Amino acid sequence: MKIISLCLFQWRGNKITDPKLLATGFESSSFGFFKRKSVKEWCEFVSFTLAKRTNESQRQSVKEKDYICHVHNRFDNLSAVAICDDEYPRRVAFSLLNKVMDDFMDIYRNKIGDLQEYPFEQIVQLLNKFQDPNQADKLSKIQRTLDETTIVVQDAIEKVLKRGENLEILIDRSEFLSGQSKQFYRVAKKHNQCCTIC
């Protein structure tokens, strides 16, 4: 899972004015040295085209060969585009796009207006932070923790089921269970012998 590029545009919401590139971030270490410039130009071109052709307040994902291009044009004249490999989670990609635009607006909320240069080095930091979606996204981190917990619980249940014979002995010796409960367990076990737990 990898994010290749992240671009931020100022966008006017009409077909007359082209989106203005405000900031970019690239992760090109997986490409050969001589290919990096071409990859960067390709990413900027695709991002520009998607930002221009996506309507205001719209999000979309477009597949291009082995990559998914996620774009979000917001009502506040900002547009962000992330180009990721096709394994990168869509929800996390859109969280990244929102974070980029929110952070930019926190800095330039009262200054944005004219098409001019805005230094925004944070885009590279966000690109690097979101390379691992499990670390960057709180919901993904929680889901991974839940998955690990589920594995532990399943392992424990399997161990208990393997000790079924010992469980019967414990039930027979138990002082906490009444004779009626012990009899109920034996009858239930007898009736369930035809069923197996997988």
How would you sum up this structure, described in words?
The structure is a single chain. The protein has helices at 36-53, 90-108, 122-129, 133-136, 138-162, 164-173, 179-191; strands spanning 3-10, 20-26, 58-64, 67-73, 78-85. The protein is an alpha+beta fold and 198 residues long. It folds into 2 domains: 3-131, 2-Layer Sandwich (Beta-Lactamase); 143-194, Single alpha-helices involved in coiled-coils or other helix-helix interfaces (Up-down Bundle), CATH 1.20.5. Strands 2-1-5-4-3 form a 5-stranded antiparallel sheet, sandwiched between helices. The two termini are 33 Å apart. The model has no long low-confidence stretch (mean pLDDT 77). This is Synaptobrevin. It is found in: Endomembrane system. It is a lipid-anchor. InterPro entries: Longin-like_dom_sf, Longin_dom, V_SNARE_CC.
Keyphrases for this structure?
5 strands; Single alpha-helices involved in coiled-coils or other helix-helix interfaces; alpha+beta; Beta-Lactamase; 5-stranded antiparallel sheet
